Amino acid sequence: METLTFGYFLLTRDPDGPPVNLIADADTMGPTQAVIWDRSTDAWTFRPDVAVAFLWEDPEVGEVQEVDRATAEREALHFTTVPLPTEAELTEICREALPRWLRGARK
Asked: pLDDT of 59-84, one tens digit each?
C-alpha cells in the first residue's frame, strides 16, 4: 500500500487566536480524504466533509493557515491528547474509512 502525502491546515476562530484544530488533507486525484482531531471522541477521525467546508466551500467558517508537517505536529499538541499520526497512519485511517464513507454518501 502506497502512503499518501498530506497537506496540513491549522484552523483558528480568528486571525490572532490560537489553533483549535487541524486538517490533514490527502493529496489525491479522487474524492477528498481528510483527517481531523475529533474532540468528542479524542481521536483523529476521517472527516472529508469538514475539510471541504473549511478549505473550499465556505471561507467564512473560520481562519485557515496552511503549514508544514513539523508545525502541524507542534501546534497539534496544544489542542489534542494524541499526537498527529504519521503519514502512514493517516493513510491507514483514510483507507479504512473511505469505503464506508462513500457507501453512506450514496444513501
From this structure: 565 688 999 999 999 999 999 999 99
